[in-house]
Amino acid sequence: MPRNGSGTYALPPSNPTVPGTVISSGGWWNPTSNDLATAITQSLAYDGQTVPIANLPMGNFRHTNVANAINRNEYATYGQVQDGQPQWMTVTGTDTILGTIAPGPTGYVAGQSFRFVPAGPNTTNAVTLNINALGAKNITKNGTNPLAPGDLAGGTVIEVIYDGTRFQLMAGGSVLTGHGQCRLAATSTTVLKLSPFNGSSLIIGGVTQQIPSAGVTYTLSGLAASTLYYVYAFMNAGTMTLEVVTTAHSTGTNGVEIKTGDATRTLVGMVRTNGSTLFADTATQRFTRSYFNDPGIDGLNWFTANRSTTSGSFVELNTEIRIEFISWADDVVTLGGAGISTQTTAPNLNSTVAAIDGTLEIGTYSAGYGPTNNFGVPYSFCKPRKGLSEGYHYFTLFGKVGGGTGTWSGGAVTTSNPDGCTLTLSAKH
To answer: Is 71 part of any domain?
Structure first.
């Protein structure tokens, strides 16, 4: 045998020769030359004429100065792998995407991954990718969920993996990234609008959806007067839609606030209709709140005329000064007020205090009396308040007297005539 199985070549018997040996064709030359020929044949020719017929262990050595692979049955260089060439492709189209990669696959196989930069943002939910004319396959996200318009943003590096049926979006697009990038507002007494804010992503049903740049509107229909409603966003055949219902919200398994019992509805706001069954967002009725990016609310009201009482216990001086509002459970509400009252009979005491929903607020009380009849007794307060329940509330003013008649001033309050009795309110989610 030319080699001993470990790569060592040994000359055949009768070698080495000794002086005086007869060189004959059958005795020495033919066996030796045949053995050498066999050994040379088993060696690799540097010009590629011969190929291995078994694995070639490299003994911890490397092939050096190798070229990049250009076919699938060639091994890649470290540089090709580092540069991402085996997965990188160029594409055309935005919804029907054609990809080109070389060397490319001969067929789709589960586990294949590819990267590309989209030619532009997708405009529909039905996006397909066709690589090297192997056939168009859907691109989905978070499993089998269709993409939302804009998920494949132009200029963004996208990575997809073939799962045996479709390409799943893994990175670069909208894969449960971004949430609550919106704000709800009443644009009129009959229309609510959800608008994009600091982005456009909203998770609905566990999928990141894109809020249209023009927003999503709801036109008042079928609601009752003086009723609290929650506003939810949901997908209706691929179109984002608003639902206004009395069903309260709860936290879903993915941390998203949803309509209780229905994870396909994501909470975006809260509203209350007024007595005329209209939406309201005025200084005296703050009845529209956004769950995301809440700008806060502010309220202001005053007596339009003098309001009097002879009660020796606290009573609401007049309902017209109420500031009605709706609050989230974690709102910080600030109560404020200032004004003046008079007493017909000195030295009886006039007392003033704020109230929420008819309950007096500790920390807002003030009292005083004058040395003469009809002497002015001012009041003022400012108090932060937490812990209000979620929903409807009203802020008002109570008063009482120690005797006689107390009168709290009213009239048209302006910047040039600000001396009426006023209430102010602010709240932030």
So the answer is: no
Q: What CATH number has the domain bearing residue 385? A: 2.60.120.40
Burial class (CB in 10 A: 0-12, 13-18, 19+), 51: exposed
SS3 of 108-128: the string is CCCCCEEEECCCCCCCCCCCE
- For residue 95, how far is the Cα from the chain centroid? 23
Peptide bond before 31: cis, by omega within 30 degrees of 0?
no
| Separation of alpha carbons 140 and 128, rounded Å | 9
> Chain centroid to CA 86: how far?
32
Burial class (CB in 10 A: 0-12, 13-18, 19+), 199: middle
Do 314 and 424 fall within a single domain?
yes
Q: What is the pLDDT of residues 58-86, one digit of tens each?
A: 788 888 887 877 676 777 776 666 655 67
Contact 89, 131 (CB under 8 A): yes
Closest to 127 (Cα-Cα) out of 109, 111, 141, 112:
141
In the chain, the number of structural domains is 4
Lowest average pLDDT, out of 21-30, 83-92, 139-148, 222-231, goes to 21-30
Residue 186: which H helix or E strand, with range?
strand 182-186
Closest-CA residue to 129 (of 171, 101, 103) = 101
The region of weakest confidence among 48-62, 86-100, 242-256 is: 48-62
CA distance 149 to 330: 34
In a domain, residue 41? The reply is yes
H-helix or E-strand spanning residue 31? helix 30-41
For residue 273, give both structure tokens: 């209709």
